[in-house]
Write a structure and sequence with these properties.
alpha/beta; Collagenase (Catalytic Domain); six-stranded mixed sheet; 33% helix; binds zinc ion; calcium; zinc ion binding
């Protein structure tokens, strides 16, 4: 009996020692996005994702046009929006007519990615916030999350948001 218990305990200890240097670092969740459905905005989508990757470390956005969980599309009316569970899965629709009005496509892409990362809209916020969306008007070209937005996403994903209970899909606009 004592022997068996000692063996059972020994294995996790050995693993713990082997991985000790990484033990204090949070696990990184990689989310894959596909942009081939929005061919006019490939560079803007990549920049929006890069802006998130520069701001947070718990979750990473990587382009992959097969088996992506975040999928970009292009539409031509009705306003940009995303249908997402806020847990790294969603369909993002970028409206070319909204871009023609003067709204910045990189900011739109980064904003919709923000929804997929778990952030709600905050239209009354300043241009320095991504989730203020269309609120600050067409003059606002900021496509980077604010420090508070980055901190919120970082905290949401610290243990891997996808591992938590899945939320219902819902549509949210730019
Ligand atoms: Zn929105």
């Amino acid at each position: 009996m004592g022997r068996v218990a000692a063996l059972v305990i020994a294995a996790p200890l050995a693993l713990g020692l082997a991985t000790a240097p990484a033990a204090s670092a949070a696990a990184v969740t990689t989310l894959y996005y596909s942009s081939s459905g929005a061919p006019d905005y490939l560079a803007q989508i990549d920049q929006g994702a890069a802006n998130w990757n520069a701001a947070v470390t718990d979750v990473k956005l990587v382009k992959r046009n097969t088996s992506a969980t975040i999928v970009f599309h292009e539409i031509h009316s009705g306003g940009s929006y995303t249908n997402t569970n806020g847990h790294g899965r969603g369909q993002i629709y970028l409206d070319t007519s909204q871009v023609a009005e003067g709204f910045d496509p990189t900011r739109i892409a980064a904003h919709e990615l923000g929804h997929n990362l778990g952030l709600p809209d905050h239209y009354s916020g300043p241009c320095t916030e991504l989730m203020s969306g269309h609120g600050p008007g067409t003059a606002c070209k900021n496509a980077k999350p604010s420090a508070a937005e980055a901190a919120k996403v970082q905290s949401l994903w610290v243990n891997g948001l996808v591992a938590q209970a899945a939320a219902e899909n819902r549509a949210v606009a730019y």
